[in-house]
Amino acid sequence: MSLLRTDRLYRSFGSLVVTNNINLSIAPGERHVIIGPNGAGKTSLINQIGGQLPPTAGRILLDETDITGWTPDRICRAGIARTFQRNNLFVNLSVLENLRLAVEARRGNALQFFWPIERFRPLIERAEELMQRVHLGGDGARCCSMSRPRACRPLRLHG
After folding, report:
1. If you placed Cys at 115, which of 38, 110, 119, 121 could pair as Cys (CB 3.0 to 4.6 Å)?
2. Does residue 135 share a domain with residue 99?
3. Element (H, E) at 97
4. Half-sphere exposure (CA, 13 Å, Cβ side) for 44?
5. What range does the domain containing 115 cover?
6. Is 8 found in the same domain as 74?
7. CATH number of the domain encompassing residue 14
């Protein structure tokens, strides 16, 4: 059974075809690598799976649920997490604070400024757990950007 599957995924920009009937099947616990030259459609494929780019045709299935056309935040809450080449951290915040925001967003409570302080404790504990899991200290922007998808609690992220 596939955890993640694409069925004839196709995307074009006018006459430029960037993904052409991609069939991909990833079982639980499997890892795959997408390799190709610049312009081959690797990022377009990942953007379609992550919801940043809607496919022109085809389907994306997560645990046999059709997630084609879902928004990126809904896809993340369903269990697909990703990182970007640019880390987009809040530079004035600590690693812990950046991870807490990611945990908070995953729980659907993004940017709750007026919570009583005790409501933040579980978020901070989860962020601390993530920091320890990837051996982060007080700094480490790249490692932090790699930890943020874990805050999303993806379905099957091993490591």
Report:
1. 119
2. yes
3. helix 95-106
4. 20
5. 95-151
6. yes
7. 3.40.50.300
C-alpha span between 32 and 35 (Å, rounded): 10
Beta bridge partners of 13: 16
Asked if residues 139 and 96 have their Cβ atoms less than 8 Å apart, the reply is: no
Look up residue 41 and give its DSSP letter. S
Let me know how long the chain is. 159
Domain boundary among 78, 107, 139: 78
The verdict on residue 85 lying in a domain is no
The whole-angstrom separation of Cα 41 and Cα 159 is 27
pTM of the entire structure? Answer: 0.63
93 DSSP 8-state letter = S
> Dihedral, CA atoms, 21, 24, 1, 157, nearest 10 degrees?
-140
pLDDT profile of the chain (159 residues), mean per 10 = 94 96 92 89 93 96 96 87 69 79 71 69 83 63 53 47
Distance, in Å, from the CA atom of 99 to the CA atom of 69, rounded to the nearest integer, reads 27
